[in-house]
Write a structure and sequence with these properties.
alpha/beta; Rossmann fold; 5-stranded parallel β-sheet; two-stranded parallel sheet; 15 helices; 7 strands; DNA_pol3_clamp-load_cplx_C; EC 2.7.7.7; transferase; DNA-directed DNA polymerase
Length: 331
């Protein structure tokens, strides 16, 4: 029988998903025990991981203990030394859960997980990743599983509305499920008209939703996706520009080449794994033709200059104009 991990590390890009995963893990570890006797939570900017380990190694009159260390993103390799020692010689009655989330300090950034800690926890079987799949079938399947796990049942129209509105902000599913349960009751069937009021503003979308809309010459959809990336995803227009430049650099690299298959295109572009991005770039290079590709590069260059102060327009407007012009290119 495999031993239970002495330390769990829960991490991911979305703090809501991390919070939800930590809550479910703690529920499982505590079980039917009295939380006031079993669970200890460390949080804030003052505690050290050494204190968590000390608590885990201190005998408890109540038996099993679960110790949760919040805001782990502020710790570095040296801070984790005591945890690494604990993994080598853990207490049989205690388990530590480290939530690798952003520190609750204004302007604080999420630190990278120390490699030694990540390796040790993973080897012990305690690594829990919460990041949703990036795209394609894997992401759609993941979203479908999350929607099915909600405490209410959604009609197909409601599921479509949730996905189109939330975009990349899938962490909002956790709060949405709790809200709908409170309003309609557990197991209730909720349709799109009943759901719209609780969804809030449209969330961000991934960069490929923007480039796909541009490639398909759907200018209104492209500009809407751009606005969602900037307002809902907190991306600066310069970050959007970086995605567009990468997209058109791939197209330009294939323009005029003798590449005929998507596999050859992927090899030329240095794309590993799925050849789908190369397939899209190849199709777009053929549709635009050399003149269209040259025009796209010129538009990107001018917009880049304008974003850096050459134009009197604000950054979002400059990018909106660029996206509209790119959407009109093509033979």
């Amino acid at each position: 029988m495999t031993a239970a991990p002495p330390v769990w590390l829960v991490r991911g890009d979305d703090p809501v998903l991390v919070e939800d995963a930590v809550g479910k893990l703690v529920d499982r570890l505590v079980g039917d025990a009295n939380r006031s006797e079993t669970l200890d939570v460390f949080s804030g900017a003052d505690y050290e991981l050494g204190a968590v380990v000390m608590a885990a190694e201190t005998p408890s009159m109540f038996g099993r203990r679960v110790l949760v260390a919040r805001e782990g993103g502020r710790f570095n390799t040296d801070d984790c030394a005591e945890v690494l020692r604990y993994i080598e010689s853990p207490s049989e009655s205690s388990v530590i859960v480290i939530a690798w989330e952003r520190p609750a300090v204004s302007g604080a950034r999420l630190g990278a997980t120390p490699r030694k800690l990540l390796s040790a926890v993973k080897a012990a079987g305690g690594l829990l990743e919460t990041k949703a799949p990036g795209g394609g079938k894997a992401r759609s399947q993941w979203v479908g599983e999350q929607l099915s796990a909600l405490p209410v049942r959604l009609t197909p129209a409601a599921k479509t509305l949730v996905q189109s509105t939330l975009g990349e902000d899938l962490g909002r599913l956790v709060g949405l499920g709790a809200t709908l349960k409170g309003v309609y009751g557990e197991g209730a069937l909720v349709d799109a008209p009943d759901l719209a009021h609780y969804l809030g503003d449209a969330g961000s979308v991934p960069p490929w939703d923007l480039t796909d809309a541009i490639d398909d010459r759907r200018s209104k959809v492209a500009i809407d996706n751009l606005n969602r990336m900037v307002s809902g995803g907190d991306r600066h227009p310069l970050q959007v520009m970086a995605s567009l430049i990468t997209h058109y650099q791939r197209i330009a690299a294939l323009s005029g080449s003798d590449v005929r298959t998507e596999r050859d295109a992927a090899d030329l572009l240095g794309i590993k794994g799925s050849t789908f991005p190369a397939k899209k770039a190849l199709a777009q290079s053929r549709r635009l033709g050399p003149e269209g590709v040259a025009r796209a590069i010129a538009l990107l260059a001018q917009a880049d200059v304008d974003l850096r102060g050459a134009s009197g327009l604000d950054a979002l407007t400059v990018t909106q104009v660029l996206v509209a012009r790119l959407s009109r290119l093509g033979r």
